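Request: Show me your protein:
***
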Amino acid sequence: MAPLRILVVEDDFLISMLLADMLEAMGHTVCAVARTQNEAVTAAERGKPDILIVDAGLHEGNGVAAVDQIERHGFVPHIFVTGDQTSVLALKPKAIVLEKPFTEAMLAAAIDRALASTLTS
């Protein structure tokens, strides 16, 4: 897989750092880490990421709403990470959801699925 520019949207500092480290170890570049819905939208506009990895439940705002806002400017492949995939799938039945906790292999498979969704969007 070619290296990707990835925007991580995660409000838990430790999880965001572990996720960024995991992605960089996989050969990708984390172009930004956002902790709120508004930061995510701004970071996506500035950084033009290849893919978004988004915590569905943020303390300030909502990850699902952030993706909706970002996609007003065009589709961006994305993965929702959550401890409650049922809630995400109720809102977005075709969403690619990675349930916490997850492994690097699970993350890589989710990235592959998200990139493949670009072909059908």
